Amino acid sequence: MVTRCCDTPEPTRLLVLADEPATRYCVSTCAACAGAVIEYYSFDDWDTGNPADFEKYWWWRMDAPDTAAFRDAIAACPAPLDGACRCPVHHALKWRTPNTMPPSRETPYEEAEVPRTRFHIDEGGAIRWKHP
Fold this sequence. Notes:
The chain is α+β, with helices and mostly antiparallel strands and 132 residues long. It is 13% helix and 31% strand. Strands 1-2-3-4 form a 4-stranded antiparallel β-sheet. It has a two-stranded antiparallel ribbon with strand order 5-6.
């Protein structure tokens, strides 16, 4: 799925945190703007009475300076494109999403702005998402 971080996006996957049929979670960098887009997709067939509620997409953006620092912070990961990797980077980010959760939407092209996010390294050395 195409993601928008700028007017001419050129996304390339940088880090895959989950790549299963019911869950996709990844960070893609953009060659055009040097920023990044975080995508989280979840399929949940809990019967709400509305099949449109089964598929949920969430998007966040990181600015270029944060993306460059993030790239450095995850450099120790031996398999960044393997969602099953058990390294500390994957362990720290896999079970959390950036806060706050924006409304679910199919694409980041809709009128509402894709929210920005950042990250930080906690006292134990783990990478954590951080609200800007």
